[in-house]
Design a protein that fits this description.
By secondary structure, the protein is mainly alpha-helical. It has one domain: Up-down Bundle (Growth Hormone, Chain: A), CATH 1.20.1250.20. It is built from 17 helices and no strands. Helix 4 packs antiparallel against helix 8 and helix 11 runs antiparallel to helix 17. The relative contact order is 0.17. It comes from Mesobacillus campisalis.
Amino acid sequence: MKRFTKEENSWMFYDWGNSAYSIIITTAVFPLFYKASATDAGISAANSTAYLGYTISIATFILAMIGPILGTIADYKGNKKRFFRFFVLLGVVATAGLAFIPNGQWLLLLILYTFTVLGSAGSNVFYDAFLVDVTSDERMDSISARGYSLGYIGSTIPFLISIALIVLAQNGLIPISVTAASQMAFLITALWWGVFSLPLIRNVHQRHYLEREPHPVVNSFRRLARTFREIRKYRALFLFLLAYFFYIDGVGTIITMSTAYGSDLGISSTNLLIILFATQVVAAPFAILYGRLADKFSGKKMLYVGIMVYIVVCIYAYFLETTMDFWILAMLVATSQGGIQALSRSYFAKLVPKENANEFFGFYNIFGKFASIMGPLLVGATAQLTGSSSHGVFSLIVLFIVGLIILVRVPEPKVDVFHSGTSKTMQ
């Protein structure tokens, strides 16, 4: 593979910054901080897990509603980066704000957490859509996979600092409480995310776009409605979105609720943090491996592999009992977590019309986010009905099976030359 361009590197490094949010806020420190806060307030373990699932569902529902609309407007020249900057700022400020919520105020934590989810997921809509602007179709699998790999590597730095602060505080080796150490982790995350957003903001440009026209908002709604009516005409794209709707639901739910699940099983906070760190380390080379194998065997076949691994994860999670079991489960997830997300992004990017990338990534977002509503609700409701989180995780297996069946019917995308076609190019 040829040397990476400045735009490709700048694009990939956003994963380096944003992934700190994913591991510290979505997966590790915040869920533990929230669970402790809810416990102090007298909320049961099953209910606090359910409330977290419901909160994630509400946030993703909001974004699913506005994502396609914003994406359609962002297809106009110069708008993509404006929306990207707004959501990055929203996420960074809200994440920093978590540090100032007192321990025990679990409801306030969930409210502010909603805004962090909107900022992170919202910025990723436009970040993903920038993939068509920074590289060629034949390099997309590798660039997307390396972005995820950089994310895993980069996120380990603030994560290690955060773990060190929390562990030192737990053992009384530094004169701060565990609560204060966790709050410092939120500030570190916000700073890391904000700083490593700057290369993309400075160096990446919207090469594919629609020229501005009068009444852009009204016309954007018209284009959105037309695309929604005609989306079935894009057979490959529509089938892929249906498959993605199901299998990414399971992936996202396992990522967002794994720490709460481990906590319910009685695994200590220290062990959970160490396991999550190891997961990041293992996931980085596997994300690159998925990209390389996709170049050799095709992205679609590697998506099959990723889905099958997650089916095994769901089955194994049902029988989970010990910390060692959780270690094994985490390592299984690490082998495919980044690969399945990276190849889904690049596979879709190859299918979309380049000049309408934001609009179509808006649909990519709405399918993914509506799926993310269903998964946490399923786990939350099952946990409350059965009193066991294991049953909820096992129920996710049906989502992977349905997604796999539909994905088999999706034709392979055709590879085009970078900047081919009639789309406009920003100089």
